[in-house]
């Protein structure tokens, strides 16, 4: 672990499993509450100087961090594939994306305004860092989820205590080690532990801001802890993204893009397409194309660079997806590709499945499957499909597909989601905010809007 600028060991460890084999392949450190306290205390001390450090220096340090990540991309990719199961190219995209995000964020202007009334200055609105930020991230994109928090925290003068998911701690722990000589001691602390340490972290009086990415269920606990201690909070939570496909699209081209956005990382992406609503006129044609793409998937360990679909990441996720698929079969779902069963090989593998004929009430439609099983539903009227797409507690992202951009944007504006893409899906950019509405989150990450999440307002008004 990285605590106060040092590599720190733990007395206890826990198993890390390779989901492509189910073998225990590493031991990760189990931080104690004393080590959590030490990390927070180090971050508090470091904050006193980091907040005063010239922002130009902070930017330089961040760029150096990005360069270091790229220089060690190979080993970070290897850790990510082994601990998370993702295909090599997906891990490569995650590592390179992390470096790009760090570098881009380093160049963002810091906000601040002068307010005038009738041409006379009445005040200045400044932004202040919170202090110690507690960052908690999930297992599906461990490294980039962490960087989405570390980068804006560092630029804005906050210091960080970060805890990765216990399922995927290794690439992130290695990142802490790699950045040790670039950052002043205590500015970035990375501790690893099973879930039991998390409540002590969210309740810690030395942490002033919580930034959390993970499930809505856990997000509620984080929100409650933030309320108890009046901490700042940003929550990036679950989703059940709809894709709405109008009748005028090029079916083969749209199918390819939808397949990519539904099955990337075996569907384990917060903003993966999780339900497709397709106009009845092209429903069957789209299903044929999607099923054909599913049939071409190369399933296996992500270490094999030809593999396109890796395993589910955890036993729990594997069981959950199979349960939803079995329920879909019982609900009358027809499997145009795949089947409600595991692939016959070691590891948590499920082949990509395309399922039609489900009622809107099927659990595979209403719940976040977070796996390679995609329900395809038919519609005829826009009003009807907008209402069905919005009939969910979630509001993370969505997409609308049509050659008529005006029509697509008009539908997009009626969807209750933080991001609605047109003719693309799951295309985050460091320049644009990522923000969930409804049960998908509170606050935003990325771009200028993400920086605001790490800053508090201070008004200076002189008589
Ligand atoms: P999770 O909620 O189970 O775990 C996330 C993190 O919370 C882990 O680090 C875990 O150790 C920690 N945690 C566990 N108990 C806690 C507690 N009581 N208090 C504080 N933290 C606690 O989520 P997961 O299964 O790792 O990730 C999958 C979920 O994350 C999906 O729902 C997915 O949609 C969501 N997600 C959202 C986004 C987004 O940007 N909106 C991105 C990626 C994943």
UniProtKB/TrEMBL annotation:
SUPFAM superfamilies: ALDH-like (SSF53720). GO terms for molecular function: oxidoreductase activity, acting on the aldehyde or oxo group of donors, NAD or NADP as acceptor. Pfam families: Aldedh. Keywords: Oxidoreductase. PROSITE patterns: ALDEHYDE_DEHYDR_CYS, ALDEHYDE_DEHYDR_GLU. It comes from the Bacteria. The active site is at 236. Coiled coil: none annotated. Residues 11-460 form the Aldehyde dehydrogenase domain. PANTHER family: ALDEHYDE DEHYDROGENASE-RELATED. Belongs to the aldehyde dehydrogenase family. This is Aldehyde dehydrogenase domain-containing protein.
């Amino acid at each position: 672990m990285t605590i106060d600028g040092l590599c720190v060991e733990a007395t206890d460890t826990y198993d890390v499993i390779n989901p492509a084999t189910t073998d225990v392949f590493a031991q990760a450190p189990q931080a104690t509450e004393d080590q959590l306290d030490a990390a927070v205390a180090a971050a508090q001390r470091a904050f006193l100087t980091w907040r005063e450090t010239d922002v130009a220096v902070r930017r330089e340090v961040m760029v150096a961090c990005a360069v270091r990540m790229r220089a060690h991309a190979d080993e970070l990719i290897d850790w990510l594939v082994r601990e998370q199961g993702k295909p090599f190219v997906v891990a490569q995209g995650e590592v390179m994306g992390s470096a790009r995000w760090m570098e881009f964020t380093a160049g963002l202007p810091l906000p601040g305004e002068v307010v005038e009334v009738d041409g006379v200055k009445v005040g200045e609105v400044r932004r202040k860092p919170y202090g110690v930020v507690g960052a908690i991230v999930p297992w599906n994109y461990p490294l980039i989820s962490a960087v989405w928090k570390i980068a804006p925290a560092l630029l804005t003068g906050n210091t960080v205590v970060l805890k990765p998911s216990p399922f995927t701690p290794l690439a992130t722990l290695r990142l802490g080690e790699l950045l040790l000589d670039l950052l002043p001691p205590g500015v970035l602390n990375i501790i690893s532990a099973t879930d039991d340490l998390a409540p002590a972290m969210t309740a810690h009086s030395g942490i002033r801001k919580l930034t959390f990415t993970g499930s809505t269920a856990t997000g509620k606990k984080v929100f409650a802890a933030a309320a108890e201690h009046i901490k700042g909070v940003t929550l990036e939570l679950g989703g059940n993204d709809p894709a709405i496909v109008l009748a005028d699209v090029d079916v083969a081209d749209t199918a390819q893009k939808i397949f990519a956005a539904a099955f990337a990382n075996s569907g384990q992406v917060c903003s993966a397409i999780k339900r497709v609503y397709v106009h009845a006129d092209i429903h069957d044609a789209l299903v044929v194309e999607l099923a054909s793409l599913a049939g071409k998937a190369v399933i296996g360990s992500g270490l094999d660079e030809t593999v396109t679909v890796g395993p589910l990441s955890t036993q729990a996720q594997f069981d959950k997806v199979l349960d939803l698929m079995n329920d879909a079969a019982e609900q009358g779902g027809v499997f145009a590709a795949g089947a409600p069963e595991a692939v016959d090989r070691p590891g948590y593998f499920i082949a990509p499945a395309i399922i039609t004929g489900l009622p809107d009430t099927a659990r595979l439609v209403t719940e976040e499957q977070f796996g390679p099983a995609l329900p395809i539903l038919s519609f005829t009227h826009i009003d009807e499909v907008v209402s069905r797409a919005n009939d969910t507690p979630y509001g993370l992202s969505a997409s609308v597909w049509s050659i008529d951009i005006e029509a697509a944007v008009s539908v997009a504006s009626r969807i209750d989601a933080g991001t609605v893409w047109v003719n693309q899906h799951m295309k985050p950019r460091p320049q644009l905010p990522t923000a969930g509405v409804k049960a998908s989150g509170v606050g935003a990450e990325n771009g200028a809007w993400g920086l605001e999440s790490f800053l508090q307002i201070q008004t200076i008004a002189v008589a």
